[in-house]
Amino acid sequence: MTSLKILVHETQAIHKNHIRSCRYDDHGIFSKLPGRARRTGCKNATAVPFDHEWGLDHGTWTVIRHMYPEANIPVLQLSIDYYKSPQYHYALIQELAELRKKGVLIVGSGNMVHNLGMVAWDRLKDDSYGFDWTLEMNDLFKKHISEGNHQPLIQYEGLHKSAKLAIPTPDHYYPLLYILGLQDKMIP
User: Measured between alpha carbons, how far is 93 from 37 in angstroms, rounded to an integer?
Assistant: First the structure.
């Protein structure tokens, strides 16, 4: 999906029929969300279109099916807009942070390093293995996250010479920015 949308259905099908027996729905929560949660723009409050067709993407259901296998929680999915800047995504979640006070669990599922073209498939079970550039990036991620220093992570393309290898496309990285945007607002 290449533009920002809120994916909402009475009964959430899993996108591309990944798991036919697993259905999540919004349990009517979407109609109860404040108008602000239905908007983006962070400054201009442009309305976010709803998508009633897409279904849950693997980035959502692969996480929640283990957390809530009975599919008994409301689920809304926010798509990733490739064409918006990292700063836009970071600011967007700050606008939606008030939803946490209403009991909405916000999950950012993705990978800080996600380059399938560089995977050493023969070493997948070796927990001690990693390319030097992945280990360097992992150390930088941990450092900046633990220090609460978000700007280098928002401006990730200049973070390190290996950033382009670690993050060839932003779709798996932007969910981290959503969680970082909530970091100083997190409820213990």
Answer: 10
